């Protein structure tokens, strides 16, 4: 007997959920600091190019594989008859578990900061190190975050994931707009925008290209089967390419908008833009403090609530990948599967939780030739985001075109989309998946390995 898998009830529900997966800490926390370190607008141009040229075709391929097979990231390859290729799915599961294990810790920081802002404790920015080292508080916030995520996922696709996305995504959008409007009124906002929008192409180095690509991949939730999984709940008649376009545009749109609020904020205080991972957690509380106690609480609270919401729709998708694997392949009831997986991932995340000041050995976990000393959390991020995701994307492109075969892929793609047949967009997606994606993604994978480990 077939298991009851559930599915999205509307196309809009799917688009919002997938956009929710894409829009996350990657857009609001990581994107601005990567822009700051990558020299500003030149990075933005590269990032946008990568999203549309390289990532969009992979996004389409993932959704097509999911919709065709109606299976999880591992089962999809088996359902197509390629059992050996199911290793791509297992790689994806591993990436998902690893990413969620540390992502949940950063999400817990965001939630914790929301509470600090609302209670008017702006000094927290100067005590970021003490905050992350306090593993009891951060641990409690991360239990809360993982628990909330598991609660939503356990309620199923339409009753949990879709419903949450339908509430959170529009709210998130409104919050971003309010914050941008406010940020524009700050002194020096124009300087911030200049840095953000006027490209200086002399800033582009190999390293910048490579981090723009990694960022594009992470930001679109690609290369680990999250979109195969969500795609498996999509109605057969829905249009894949136009859904994928909307998902890409929303993700890119929110990242770009995030810059419009963060750079005016940062420049209003004349603070350096290359603050790295702490840009948001260290710099912004000081900016909010300068707004005065009432306005600071409102704007600061709003900002970290926004960050928590964005993270939440992403943790939901990260948890759904292993959950749907357990439901489909091991016939475990959804709610039970969800809580078991959440517990395991939480446990996997404990060293990451402890690696930001609580346990010294975990803070200096690995010393790699290319990157120097890394804490455990950054190390796991390097392996999962920078290595596994591009590798997964490479394998998915190769699988789609050369194993599953172009004809079958295109048949699935054009089902429910009569206009696509013979269009330039279809030709482009095929060309990119056949040549551009395998070449560039394969190259990035190799460069990352050589760069980091040798
Ligand atoms: N796209 C998410 C973000 O930008 C992160 C993510 C990666 C989510 C992979 C799911 C899968 O924060």
Automatic annotation (TrEMBL):
Transmembrane segments: 12-29, 41-65, 85-115, 135-153, 165-184, 204-228, 240-267, 295-319, 339-359, 379-404, 425-450
Top-level taxon of the source organism: Bacteria
Primary localization: membrane
Pfam families, per database record: SNF
UniProt cross-references to PROSITE patterns, sorted A to Z: NA_NEUROTRAN_SYMP_3
Membrane topology recorded in Swiss-Prot or TrEMBL: Multi-pass membrane protein
Cell compartments where the protein resides: Membrane
Statement: the UniProt record of this protein carries the keyword Nucleotidyltransferase: no
Gene Ontology cellular-component annotations: membrane
Keywords: Membrane, Transmembrane, Transmembrane helix, Transport
InterPro entries xrefs: Na/ntran_symport, SNS_sf, YocR/YhdH-like
PANTHER family assigned: TRANSPORTER (PTHR42948:SF1)
UniProt-recorded name of the protein: Sodium-dependent transporter
Organism the protein comes from: Aliikangiella coralliicola
């Amino acid at each position: 007997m077939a298991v009851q898998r559930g599915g999205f009830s509307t196309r809009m529900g799917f688009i919002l959920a997938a956009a929710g997966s894409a829009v996350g800490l990657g857009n609001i926390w990581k994107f601005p600091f990567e822009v700051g370190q990558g020299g500003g607008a030149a990075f933005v141009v590269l990032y946008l190019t990568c999203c549309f040229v390289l990532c969009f075709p992979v996004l389409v391929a993932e959704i097509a594989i999911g919709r065709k097979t109606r299976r999880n990231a591992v089962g999809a390859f088996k359902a197509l008859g390629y059992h050996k290729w199911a290793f791509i799915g297992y790689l994806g599961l591993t990436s998902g578990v690893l990413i969620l294990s540390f992502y949940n810790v950063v999400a817990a920081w965001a939630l914790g900061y929301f509470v600090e802002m609302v209670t008017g404790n702006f000094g927290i920015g100067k005590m970021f190190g003490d905050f992350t080292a306090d593993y009891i508080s951060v641990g409690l916030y991360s239990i809360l975050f993982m628990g909330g995520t598991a609660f939503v996922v356990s309620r199923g696709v339409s009753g949990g994931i879709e419903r949450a996305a339908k509430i959170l995504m529009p709210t998130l959008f409104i919050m971003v707009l309010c914050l941008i409007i406010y940020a524009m009124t700050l002194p020096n906002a124009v300087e911030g925008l200049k840095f953000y929008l006027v490209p200086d192409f002399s800033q582009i180095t190999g390293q910048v290209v490579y981090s723009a690509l990694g960022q594009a991949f992470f930001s679109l939730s690609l290369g680990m089967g999250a979109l195969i999984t969500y795609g498996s709940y999509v109605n057969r008649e829905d249009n894949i390419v136009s859904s994928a376009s909307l998902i890409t545009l929303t993700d890119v749109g929110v990242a770009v908008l995030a810059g419009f609020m963060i750079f005016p904020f940062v420049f209003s205080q004349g603070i350096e833009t290359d603050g790295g991972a702490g840009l948001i957690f260290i710099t912004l509380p000081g900016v909010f403090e300068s707004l005065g106690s009432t306005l600071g609480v409102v704007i600061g609270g709003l900002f970290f609530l926004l960050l928590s919401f964005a993270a939440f729709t992403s943790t939901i998708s990260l948890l759904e990948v292993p959950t749907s694997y357990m439901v489909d392949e091991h016939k475990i009831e959804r709610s039970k599967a969800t809580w078991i997986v959440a517990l395991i991932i939480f446990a996997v995340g404990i060293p990451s939780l402890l690696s930001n000041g609580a346990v010294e050995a975990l803070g200096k976990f690995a010393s790699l030739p290319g990157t120097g000393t890394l804490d455990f959390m950054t190390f796991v991020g390097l392996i999962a985001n920078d290595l596994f995701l591009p590798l997964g994307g490479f394998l998915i492109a190769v699988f789609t075109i050369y194993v599953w075969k172009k004809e079958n892929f295109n048949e699935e793609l054009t089902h429910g989309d009569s206009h696509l047949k013979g269009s330039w967009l279809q030709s482009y997606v095929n060309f990119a998946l056949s040549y551009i994606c395998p070449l560039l993604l394969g190259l990035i994978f190799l460069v990352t390995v050589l760069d980091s480990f040798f």
